[in-house]
Design brief:
Length: 459
């Protein structure tokens, strides 16, 4: 999967290319002008740029020049409606990969794009999410993590993955295992906090029959099951002091002894641990063994919270829209630009997991095929309004706001309905929720007011 940026001031062209290229299996981001495109390129990884030449503001040629200055290897394909030999000469001189004139046929553009991608694929050394199925992200932070995964995976080094809850630590652990030399053996996740302390030792190292009440058979421990593979010790910060000591011994001696047994058995297990606690603090507080920490964190990987890599939000949203449209058998493939704005302004205390839940709920609730702000539930945050279509300027003026994009996406009726809804809520707020007075204020009949309140489900 390649990351393609399409820049064109004409919406139909952007949509056309997006559909065409998405069908070919690429990830496509579009912007309506060169300035926005350059901004996007600053923070994101991209394998190919396709840009119109004639655009208001920065022209395609100016964009090409800027791109070539920053990233000379990034292929740029130029499109223009006015096939002018002059433009073509200029474009090639500045280093465009190729030049296509509108109207072009689909096969032609497909073949030009395929060869550009081939060239770019052959030359890129930086990691993309391609080798990491299921991990979405093109931000600098994520590219760094992809690089780290690639470097550490083939080694036997223990890895400690840390970061807030919901940032994707388990996905990183799985990716390391998949790219490791033991990828064909087991990956055994062990959630340290989920196992009661008194059972932990037997879960990890097994027990022999009769070693304690209830031990009616010999039992294999998870370490033995993971032998020659990877053990993923999740929430390692929750491990009790006694088990910490036993685990340290396993890491040092590379052998285990089942509860009640007296024979040590050699094991060869790659350990990946994860925690959302700050282990250094746990160490200072005397709750975590420092020597164990150093054994586990031979290679530490920090997964940053989503708010530190907001540029991944649009890609993640697209990914989850597809996922939940499929799962819930719906066709919600888009999100309104206001709804996206709301998300971009949100902090995501629950990180990617929270974003995933928000989109899942949004898809479930949505009756059209585009997610609207009112179907986003962001606990404790400034939710949708004023991202509806009315802004209260606070000095007695209400201003209708809508972007061109929103208007043509939703259509006039939906935009007007949104406004009506917001004006009605505003009037209700002003009158302390007296329907009678609110109807008066709006100069409509009480009956029609009541009808609208019901229709829009206004509380
Ligand atoms: N980069 C990503 N791309 C796609 N999905 C992601 C990404 N990061 C996280 N997710 C999804 O978010 C959810 C949480 O991810 P994961 O379980 O790996 O987080 P975690 O860091 O282990 O969280 P916790 O500390 O709560 O265990 C999962 O459903 C996962 O698939
Ligand atoms: Mg986890």
């Amino acid at each position: 999967m390649f990351q393609i940026l399409v820049i064109d001031d004409e919406r139909s062209m952007r949509d056309f290319l997006k559909i065409l290229l998405t069908k070919e299996g690429h990830q496509v981001v579009t912007t309506a002008n060169g300035e926005k495109g350059l901004e996007y390129l600053q923070d994101n990884r991209c394998d190919l740029v396709i840009t119109d030449i004639r655009m208001p503001g920065m022209s395609g040629l100016e964009l090409l020049e800027a791109v070539k200055e920053e990233t000379p290897d990034l292929p740029v394909i130029m499109i223009t409606a006015f096939a002018s030999p002059n433009d073509a000469v200029q474009a090639m001189k500045y280093g465009a990969f190729d030049y296509i004139s509108k109207p072009f046929n689909v096969d032609e553009i497909k073949s030009v794009i395929a060869s550009a991608i081939k060239q770019s694929g052959g030359e890129t050394s930086e990691s993309t999410s391609d080798s990491f199925p299921g991990i979405i992200g093109q931000s600098r932070e994520m590219v760094k993590i992809f690089d780290m995964i690639k470097r550490v995976a083939p080694t036997p080094a223990n890895v400690l993955i840390y970061g807030e809850s919901g940032t994707g630590k388990e996905l990183v652990a799985q990716a390391i295992h998949r790219l490791s030399k033991v990828a064909n053996n087991h990956f055994i996740p062990i959630t340290c906090s989920a196992i009661p302390e008194e059972l932990m030792e037997s879960e990890l190292f097994g027990h022999v029959k009769g070693s304690f009440t209830g031990a009616i058979n010999d039992k294999l421990g998870l370490f033995e099951v993971a032998n020659n593979g990877t053990a993923f010790l999740d929430e390692i910060g929750e491990l009790s002091p006694i088990i910490q000591t036993k685990l340290l011994r396993v890491l040092q001696e590379r052998e285990i002894k089942p509860v009640g047994g007296n024979i040590f058995q050699k094991i060869n297990v790659r350990i990946i641990a994860a925690t959302n606690r700050v282990l250094e603090d746990e160490i200072s507080a005397g709750r975590f063994r420092e020597d164990l920490f150093y054994r586990l964190a031979v290679v530490p990987i920090r997964v940053p919270p989503l708010r530190e890599r907001k540029s991944d939000v649009p890609l993640l949203v697209q990914h989850f829209l597809e996922k939940y449209s499929n799962l819930l058998d719906k066709e919600v493939h888009e999100i309104s630009s206001y709804a996206m704005q709301v998300l971009m302004n949100y902090d995501f205390p629950g990180n990617v997991r929270e974003l995933e839940n928000i989109i899942e709920r949004g898809v479930a609730l949505e009756s059209s095929n585009i997610i609207l702000p009112e179907n986003l539930t962001l606990p404790g945050a400034k939710v949708a309004p004023p991202s509806g279509n009315v802004e209260d300027t606070g000095n007695g003026t209400l201003r209708a706001i809508t972007s061109e994009e929103e208007l043509y996406h939703l259509g006039l009726e939906k935009v007007l309905a949104n406004m009506e809804k917001l004006f009605i809520s505003h009037a209700l707020d002003k009158t302390n929720h007296s329907k009678m007075r609110a109807a008066d204020l709006l100069k409509i009949s009480f009956r029609s007011f009541r009808y609208k309140v019901k229709k829009y489900d206004i509380q």
